[in-house]
Amino acid sequence: VEVDANADKDDVLIPGIKENIERTGVHSGDSFCVYPPQNISQKVMDTLVDYTKRIAVALRVVGLMNIQFVVKDEKVYIIEVNPRASRTVPILSKVTKIPMVQIAMQVILGDKLADLPYGTGVSPTTNLIAVKAPVFSFVKLGDVDVALTPEMKSTGEVLGIDTKYDRAMLKAFLGAGFRFNETGKVIFSVNDHAKAEGVKYAKYFESKGFELVATKGTAKYLSDQGIVCSELASVDIIAIQEMMKRDEIAFVVNIPTKGKDIRRAGFKLRTLAERLKVPCFTCYDTVGAYMMAMEAYIEEEPLTYEPIAYYC
After folding, report:
1. 189 to each of 17, 211, 218, 219, 249, how far by Cα in Å?
2. In the prediction, which pLDDT does 224 show?
3. Quick one: 312 exposed, middle or buried, by C-beta within 10 A (0-12, 13-18, 19+)?
4. Contact at 8 Å (CB) between 105 and 85?
C-alpha cells in the first residue's frame, strides 16, 4: 500500500491511498495499483492514516511525502518513508482533483493545511475507481529480464478509470498493450514453491476452454491435481516461437526459479513472449488481475472513455 500526503509539521492531508496489486517483492513502480483500495479493511485504513500523521509530525515534514506499507493479516508494517514527491503524485492529483504540488508549495511558503481549501485528514472518495498499469520497453533493452523484482524496470504507465473495478482493470490492461485471446494454449512453467498456488489459476483457464501445456515438473504437478495438462518435452524455444507466431499461445505464466540468467530456458521463454507481444506473467497477482479483466472483456459490454468527472 502507498500513501502520498502533504504535511505542514503539525498535520497531514492525504488525498488518497493506493493499493498495489502485486505482492511485496515487486517494485511499486512495476506494479498495477488501484485507487481507492479494494481489499483493505477500515481498521487497516485507519492505521495507515494514523501512522502517516505520526511519522510526518515526528520527522517535521513540510510539503510532499510518500510512505510505502506492507499489510499482512490486518497488521501494518512500514517499508520506507520518502520526504519528497513520488511518481504517483501526478496520478493521485489527477483522479482526486487535489493539486498536490500547488498545496505543497503553499505549505512550504508558510501556509497551514487547515487554512487551505482541501483541509486535513483523508479526502473523501467518489464513485471513480482508477487502475494504474506499468508499461515496459524490454524489446529495446537487451538481456533485461522481464520478471518482476524489487528492481524497477517500467518506463511508463497508463491509467484505466471507471465506476466498476473490473472495467477499470480491463481498460488499464488494454491501455498497456495487453491482448485478450479467448482460445489457445497457456504455457505454465513455475518453480516448486509456486506450484500449489498455481492450481487455482490453472483450473480457471481450463474452465474457460484454454489448452494447458507445461514444463515437465509443472505438468506432472497439475496433472496430479486432476487438471488436463500436456507436457512440453523440453523448452524448445524455436518450436515455442513458431507457435507464438501462429497465435497459438494465448499467454504464458512463468514464475522463475532463479533470477536473471540469460542461459536459462525460463529467461529465453519470457524474453520471447515479450518480443512477440504474448502476455507473460511472472507474478500470480498479475494473473489474478488479468482474470478479472478477462471476465469483463468476455462480457463484451462497450467500454466508455469519458473525462474523469464523468465517473466521479
Report:
1. 34, 14, 6, 8, 14
2. 95
3. middle
4. no
DSSP secondary-structure letter at 276? T
Q: Of 205, 209, 212, 245, which Cα lies nearest the Cα of 228? A: 212
Question: Using CA atoms, how far apart are residues 116 and 162, in angstroms rounded to an integer?
Answer: 29
pLDDT of 231-277, one tens digit each? 886 667 888 888 899 999 999 999 987 656 556 777 888 888 888 88
Q: Which residues of 44-78 are buried (b: 16+ CB within 10 A; e: fewer)?
A: bbebbbebbbebbeeeebbbbbbbbbebeeeebee
CA-closest candidate to residue 139, choices 155, 160, 119, 157: 155
* Separation of CA 62 from chain center: 30
Phi, psi of 82, deg, nearest 5? -115, 110
Q: Check: CB of residue 25 under 8 Å from CB of residue 43.
A: no
Half-sphere exposure of 144 (CA within 13 A, CB side): 17
Quick one: three-class SS letters along 160-171? Answer: EEECCHHHHHHH
* Averaged pLDDT score across all residues of the chain: 92
CB 121 within 8 A of CB 13: yes
